[in-house]
C-alpha cells in the first residue's frame, strides 16, 4: 500500500476530540449538516456524478456527515455505526474516474464556499478533500450515461 494511503487511513482513524480539531473550529455538527446538504443538492443532479448516488439519498447524506465528523477530528460516528471506513473498498463497486473526482471536488468547493465561516477555515477544509477524492479513482473509462455504477 502506498505511503500516502496509509497516512490517509491513519488520519481517518485519529479521533482527536479536542477543540483544536477542524471539526470544532468549523462549528461542529451544525456546520457539517449545512455542508452535506449544500454538497448533495449539487451532486444528486450533477450530469456526470449523479449516477453514483442513486440509492437512499437521506442515508447517503447521513453516512457522509458521520464520516466527515471523524475525518475532521470530531466524534467517530461512522466507525461507531459501520466499522472502519475502508473508503476505497466501499467505493470499488462504482466506476470512478478522474473526471468524476474533479466533478466531486467542484461540488464540494461550492458547498464549502457557501458556508458562513472564515475564509482561512474554508481553505483548510477544502484542502482535506483532493487527496481523498483522487484516492477513490478506480476506472479510466466513463460509465454509460444513466448507468448506476
Radius of gyration of CA atoms, rounded to a whole number: 15 Å
Number of helices: 9
**Major sheet characteristics:** none
Strand content: under 5%
Q: Mean pLDDT score, rounded? A: 84
Number of strands: 0
What structural class do helix, strand and pairing data support? Answer: mainly alpha
The helix-strand sequence is HHHHHHHHH
| Helical percentage | 55-70%
First and last CA, distance: 25 Å
Low-confidence stretches: 3-7, 9-16, 143-149
Shape by Cα distribution: globular
Could you characterize the architecture of this molecule?
With 149 residues, the chain is mainly alpha-helical. It has nine helices and no strands. The protein has helices at 3-13, 22-26, 28-43, 57-71, 77-82, 87-91, 98-114, 119-127, 130-135. The radius of gyration is 15 Å and the shape is globular. The chain starts with a helix and ends in a 14-residue tail after the last helix. Residues 3-7, 9-16 and 143-149 have low confidence and may be disordered.
Which characteristics define this entry?
globular, disordered C terminus, 149 residues, 60% helix, mainly alpha, single chain
Give a concise summary:
By secondary structure, the chain is an all-alpha fold. The chain has helices at residues 3-13, 22-26, 28-43, 57-71, 77-82, 87-91, 98-114, 119-127, 130-135. Helix content is 60%, strand content 0%.
What's the SSE blueprint?
Elements: H1 3-13, H2 22-26, H3 28-43, H4 57-71, H5 77-82, H6 87-91, H7 98-114, H8 119-127, H9 130-135
Helix pairs in contact: 3-4, 3-7, 7-8
